[in-house]
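Need a sequence for this fold. Nothing fancy.
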């Protein structure tokens, strides 16, 4: 699909003219999976939405749930999906609260489970005919769904370079998320394809959508570029007391091939201030220091000026 060039120009101009109003945000509503879950926390510490709410001095309303996909209809899993579970949960809260939607930012960070193992695309477990196109359209449609509920300010966080995580990297080992035979080279190549094409498509779809939603502001937050930069330039982000490490994780859940239950117990791994030297907490999840970086940049995006985000109106 081709988007006329003038739409991009108009959007960039608008993003400049409205930037001054971003400081008025008072509330942050978060949707997504374990990368964003604040209760079942996946980084061994505190999750980014809690840090972001603190950094930006806003009230947090967390709805993200571990294991979630975009929709049960696209990539079915037992965890509560954004479309059928998390957004309805928010709707219930909305009926009962004085939240000002004009002053509220909504974040969506989804896709990791949709493209991943255990029900997702990489293992061929998604229903027949479901591709990265369905998954990406679903994620972008969440913005329209929330707009119809009255939401106006969105930060759409794209997928990280999952092929760099120990689970999907070419030198990965059997672990609690995948303890079966796999060709790690093929996984990392395929994952790069899924993430890169999904992100390119979501960017195009969102830029097309933005001018069709009057009064809406949509930021595309380039998590992919941010994590790629943390990977190649860790000294600018990681600050722990151990040597900086972007390939292995704080906690390593090695499994014998075929051995141990998926999700089984793991040794505690690096402790204390050493943990902030790692990009990954385990084979799939970013570390707490990576979460702090995400939080800092989301707070900056809410103030209109992160280098990793662009606002479209
Ligand atoms: C945080 O926001 C509240 C209002 O929501 C305000 O009263 C308070 O002064 C703010 N704190 C800082 C440090 O800006
Ligand atoms: C918590 O997260 C872990 C890792 O993502 C997952 O295996 C587990 O099922 C989750 N638990 C709940 C109650 O969501
Ligand atoms: C996925 O997309 C294809 C092609 O657009 C469509 O035919 C199919 O119905 C979609 N599947 C789901 C589950 O949405
Ligand atoms: C809605 O508000 C009522 C009255 O304040 C409270 O008792 C109830 O627990 C709230 N329900 C939800 C779902 O927050
Ligand atoms: C794994 O896949 C790569 C890329 O397709 C291939 O070159 C390699 O031979 C495969 N390794 C094994 C052990 O099959
Ligand atoms: C690393 O920096 C963060 C702020 O981004 C800080 O909260 C944390 O304590 C630092 N970690 C260490 C080990 O100094
Ligand atoms: C964004 O602007 C605020 C004040 O306008 C400043 O404190 C903050 O450091 C800036 N952040 C970035 C990432 O430029």
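Here you go.
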């Amino acid at each position: 699909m081709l988007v006329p060039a003038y739409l991009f120009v108009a959007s960039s101009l608008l993003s400049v003219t409205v930037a001054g109003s971003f400081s008025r945000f008072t509330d942050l509503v978060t949707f997504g999976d374990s990368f964003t879950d604040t209760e079942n926390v996946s980084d061994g510490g505190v999750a980014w939405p809690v840090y972001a709410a603190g950094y930006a001095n806003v009230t947090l309303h967390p709805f993200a749930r571990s294991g979630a996909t975009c929709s049960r209809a696209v990539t079915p899993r037992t965890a509560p999906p954004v479309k059928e579970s998390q957004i309805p949960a928010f709707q219930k809260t909305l009926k009962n609260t004085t939240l000002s939607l004009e002053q509220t930012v909504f974040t969506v960070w989804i896709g990791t489970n949709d493209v991943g193992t255990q029900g997702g695309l990489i293992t061929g477990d998604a229903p027949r005919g479901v591709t990265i196109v369905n998954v990406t359209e679903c994620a972008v449609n969440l913005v329209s769904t929330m707009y119809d509920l009255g939401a106006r300010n969105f930060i759409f966080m794209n997928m990280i370079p999952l092929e760099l995580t120990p689970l999907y990297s070419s030198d990965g080992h059997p672990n609690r998320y995948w303890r079966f035979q796999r060709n790690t080279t093929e996984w990392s190549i395929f994952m790069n394809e899924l993430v890169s094409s999904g992100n390119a498509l979501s960017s195009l779809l969102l830029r097309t959508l933005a001018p069709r939603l009057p009064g809406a502001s949509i930021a595309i937050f380039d998590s992919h570029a941010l994590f790629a930069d943390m990977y190649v330039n860790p000294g600018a982000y990681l600050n722990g007391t151990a040597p900086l490490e972007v390939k292995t994780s704080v906690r390593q859940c090695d499994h014998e091939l075929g051995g141990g239950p998926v999700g089984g117990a793991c040794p505690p791994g690096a402790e204390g201030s050493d943990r902030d030297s790692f990009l990954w907490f385990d084979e799939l999840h970013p570390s707490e220091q990576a979460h702090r970086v995400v939080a800092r940049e989301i707070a900056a995006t809410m103030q209109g000026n992160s280098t990793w985000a662009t606002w479209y109106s």
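For context: The CA atoms of residues 101 and 203 lie 24 Å apart.
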